[in-house]
Amino acid sequence: MTPTVEIEATSATTARAQLAGAAVPPMELAATDDKNLAVVVHEFVRTIAVEQQAAVEVVYRTGKDTRFLTVGPDGKLTENAPSVPIPVAVADPEPAPAEPGSPAPAGPVTVAAESIPYEAPAQPVQATARPARAATPTARSVRPTDAATGPIGALPALSAPGVNPAANLPARIGMRGRLNAMLGLALAPKADSLEMRLRDAQATIAGPLPESAVITFVNLKGGVGKTPMSIALAETIAEYRGPATAACLDLGEIGGSFSDRVAVPPAAGHDAVSLLADLGQAPHQVRPSTLARYLTRQPNGSYALAGPAGAEAPLSFDDAATLGAILERHYDLMLADTGNSSHSGSWRWAITAAHTVVVPVPLRRDAAVAAQRTLTAISAVRPDVLARTVVVITDGPGDAPMVETEAVEAFTALGVSVCRMPFEPVFASGERIVLSQLRRETCDALTVLAATVTRIGSGAAG
């Protein structure tokens, strides 16, 4: 049956569209400064026709009359009689005058002929054609009789193409997402849309990583957002890579804010110092169930290991290396939140073991200068890691835009990548980091950042 859209002009510049026979709310259309209402209605109906690959019948009602139109996928508009009964039109008491005229029967016949191409769109779903082709016997698949041995030779050719399942899903945000939700359509997002970039980023996050992968967050100045960004990024990676794949490790100074920023705070004895005291002598023999006593699971599935809150001395290089040896056996990825001293042993281990380094930098002169000193300190410990360093410029109150140009030029001169993060009130307020409570723009930026560091880390030699 040809799809039918009922459109009622509610004023000279607005109209209400409803897909006949669909249990979806109507959609409001409105003229713009450069498009009158007729153009807006025509583009709206043509979008539906292109998606359905068939002509769409339109019942267009104004205060003066009712017109029956047909709009094809090419945008061609014709006026004729409807091919399906319209409930409102049946109530019109003037069917008799239309009978003497012979053109009336010709209308439905013409539209009925166009309904054949509308049935044809079901044919492009040629999912049945692929199994038929795969089942075609070949010289290799006919010879064996055992299903476990015969088809194996053909499997690599059949399963080789990589497919991102999310790429074929209908749009959920933007104008196309609204059309899908309101009219029951399945419009795909545009290739260059934000939704497609986010889907590609999510697929990258779930991709392969090198063994013992470490993402290190550094800046020799405190209060720049290292801790909230490391916690939020661990939760973002766990959301798209899977639970229990990422662990966030607190390598900061004694009395840091890590335990105060994680969504689920650690209980007494659930920290790095207790883990080292109990299990540090045999790091390669720690069982997952035993390790779980010292880490704290966060809402999205990442795990947090608090630092030396009540210890007498900060973690040494060997302490950090032992923690890394334990965690790498149970998690795909470690995210290390560091302190403010480049002379700390745990800081130097985090740089030495890093596959990717993230440097948060607010748009303030002192933070930018500290970030430049941080990059110099990184280069002194491990020069090659600068090529895998990402500077994240974070927006916020008190920003000095004039600093951005100078800072970006200085960072890029050192060969590091630079990206931006929108202002996030939860980061600045000191509250606990719960991913579901962050702004949508922040979550999108975290997804892109997670994909960026994952892509950089996957190319690292180790």
Low-confidence stretches: 82-92, 98-160
Protein structure class: alpha/beta
Mean model confidence by pLDDT = 81
Count of individual domains: 2
Give the CATH H-level superfamily of the largest domain. P-loop containing nucleotide triphosphate hydrolases
Rg over CA atoms: 31 Å
CATH architecture of the largest domain: 3-Layer(aba) Sandwich
Q: Briefly, what is this?
A:
Residues 123-145 have a biased composition (Low complexity). By secondary structure, this protein is α/β, with parallel strands linked by helices. It has helices at 37-52, 87-90, 103-119, 129-134, 139-142, 155-159, 174-183, 194-205, 226-241, 258-261, 272-279, 288-291, 317-327, 345-352, 365-381, 401-413, 425-429, 440-458, and strands spanning 4-9, 14-19, 27-30, 56-61, 66-71, 77-79, 213-217, 246-251, 296-297, 303-305, 333-338, 356-362, 389-394, 417-421.
